[in-house]
Design goal:
CATH superfamily: Electron Transport, Fmn-binding Protein, Chain A
Low-confidence stretches: 167-182
Radius of gyration: 17 Å
Helix content: 10-25%
CATH topology: Pnp Oxidase, Chain A
Order of helices and strands: HEEEEEHEHEEEEEEE
Shape: globular
């Protein structure tokens, strides 16, 4: 069935309007980490999903303008950390372009050469399989190398520009440009 609205404009919604519309979709919150010869890097990311069971593939989207993604891409491996509702500190740390994300943070280097953050719900270790340019982001397909189950807690959610369905943890400009959100 095809529905016609009568609109003739094909440019789509303005960025601010599209951001408001997409805020109606609740998603989980992750941190994507990697490491290269200059050290560990990472960014907060809400666009994460499983793609395939055979072979095991996941995807996330990363902003071209970010500082962390180009380094992770060049290194070829990454770890996606699924955050629990109790990890607002990790979300804020990796969702900001300010400050050093790993300063004072307890973490370890995984067997895959990527930073492993503590107390998360799940770690998905993967290697970059394919990258597709999509507007101002890259759609990254990763081949899963290992999964590590962690804490059994409630997940952190992002909905209507805020964290948690109770809307407790407010963040300004969460679709921040640059090195903030992927």
């Amino acid at each position: 069935m095809t529905t016609t609205t009568g609109a003739t404009e094909t440019t789509g919604p303005a960025p601010a309007e599209f951001r408001r519309a997409m805020a109606e979709f609740a998603s989980g919150v992750t941190v994507v980490t990697g490491a290269d010869e200059h050290g560990p890097v990472g960014f907060a990311c809400q666009s994460f999903a499983s793609v395939s069971l055979e072979p095991p593939l996941v995807l996330f989207c990363a902003d071209h303008r970010g500082r962390a993604w180009p380094r992770i891409s060049a290194a070829g491996r990454f770890c996606v950390h699924v955050l629990g509702e109790h990890q607002g500190d990790l979300c804020a740390r990796f969702g900001s372009s300010r400050g050093r994300k790993y300063d004072g943070l307890e973490w370890r280097l995984s067997g895959w050469g990527t930073p492993a953050l503590p107390d998360v719900l799940l770690r998905v270790h993967a290697e970059v399989h394919e990258v597709h340019v999509a507007g101002d982001h890259d759609v990254v397909l990763g081949r899963v190398l290992e999964v590590e189950h962690g804490a059994r807690r409630q997940p952190m959610t992002f909905f209507r520009g805020r964290f948690g369905l109770e809307q407790e943890l407010a963040v300004t400009d969460v679709w921040g440009w640059g090195d903030g959100w992927g």
